[in-house]
């Protein structure tokens, strides 16, 4: 098992870890419907030039490439872009958004999901994304606030305490790596301060049960972030019990909040 938090400071998961493919699959199942509904609402269509930052498994980049045809183009970036399959109209860049150059005033749409929250330099990155937009272009950030997510129905009190310790440990894991676990709630204000107008934050929560894609994602975290959880004091036995709890048909919790925030660069 790779020790992810020390391998890649500023990003707690490792896109080269053997768990990364599953992570991208679960992220896509849980959040692509929300992301693409919002992008659809922004009017993304033929001819648009789009930038997808930290594209992960590439599902959103592929959706965009289909949407902007004919005549449009999509650039998908990632520090570790190995999971992004080639597609017509899609260029893939190995690119660190904290330090590598971005074109100025180039894109009709810049989208990034669950990337800035991990990066200590998120405000500088946000400013760079704004400058990459054409005047009138749209930035969409889809970001978590994982500090919210109450348990609702648990098999017993011990299970509730275990779930709450798991959520707290994940907040500590992410904070230690430089993430802001509540970034989703701050993104809209930061986008307005970065000069965007018509800023539109849409919070999304849902009921989680054992069949929810979001629950499959957090169950996956017990494996992908295993070493980091152990450093935060959780044992392998507790992590196995968390997986059992998340698979229990009686488990009910409110999801964390994902904020889908759009803003426009002034003309
Ligand atoms: C939590 S994953 C989200 C992936 C995808 N956006 C999604 O929501 O399905 C974060 C992604 O950001 C990438 N990443 C991390 N740091 C980055 C950086 N400095 N520049 C560009 N990409 C980065 C990771 O490799 C990973 O693919």
UniProtKB/TrEMBL annotation:
UniProt keyword Methyltransferase present: yes
Name of the protein described by the UniProt record: SAM-dependent methyltransferase
Example GO biological process: methylation
Keywords per UniProt: Methyltransferase, Transferase
Cross-referenced PANTHER family: PUTATIVE (AFU_ORTHOLOGUE AFUA_2G14390)-RELATED, TRANS-ACONITATE 2-METHYLTRANSFERASE-RELATED
Location of the Methyltransferase type domain: 51-139
One MF annotation (Gene Ontology) recorded for this entry: methyltransferase activity
Gene3D superfamilies registered for this protein in UniProt: Vaccinia Virus protein VP39 (3.40.50.150)
């Amino acid at each position: 098992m790779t020790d992810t938090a020390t391998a890649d400071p500023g990003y707690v998961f490792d896109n080269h870890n053997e768990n990364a493919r599953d992570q991208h699959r679960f992220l896509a199942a849980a959040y692509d419907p929300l992301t693409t509904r919002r992008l659809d609402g922004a009017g993304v269509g033929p001819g648009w030039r789009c930038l997808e930052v930290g594209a992960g498994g590439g599902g959103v980049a592929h959706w965009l490439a289909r949407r902007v045809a004919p005549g449009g183009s999509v650039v998908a970036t990632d520090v570790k872009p190995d999971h992004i399959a080639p597609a017509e109209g899609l260029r893939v860049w190995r690119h660190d958004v904290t330090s590598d150059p971005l074109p100025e005033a180039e894109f009709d749409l810049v989208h990034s999901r669950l990337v800035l929250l991990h990066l200590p330099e998120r405000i500088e990155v946000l400013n760079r994304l704004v400058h990459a937009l054409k005047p009138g272009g749209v930035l969409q950030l889809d970001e978590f606030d994982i500090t919210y997510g109450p348990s609702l129905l648990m098999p017993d009190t011990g299970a509730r305490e275990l779930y709450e310790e798991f959520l707290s440990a994940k907040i500590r894991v992410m904070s230690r790596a430089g993430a802001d676990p509540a970034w989703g709630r701050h993104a809209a204000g930061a986008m307005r301060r970065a000069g965007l107008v018509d800023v539109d934050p849409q919070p999304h929560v849902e009921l989680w049960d054992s069949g929810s894609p979001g629950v499959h994602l957090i169950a996956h975290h017990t494996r992908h972030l295993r070493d980091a959880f152990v450093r935060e004091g959780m044992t392998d036995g507790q992590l196995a019990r968390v997986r059992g709890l998340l698979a229990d048909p009686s488990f009910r919790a409110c999801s964390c909040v994902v904020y889908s925030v759009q803003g426009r660069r002034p003309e």
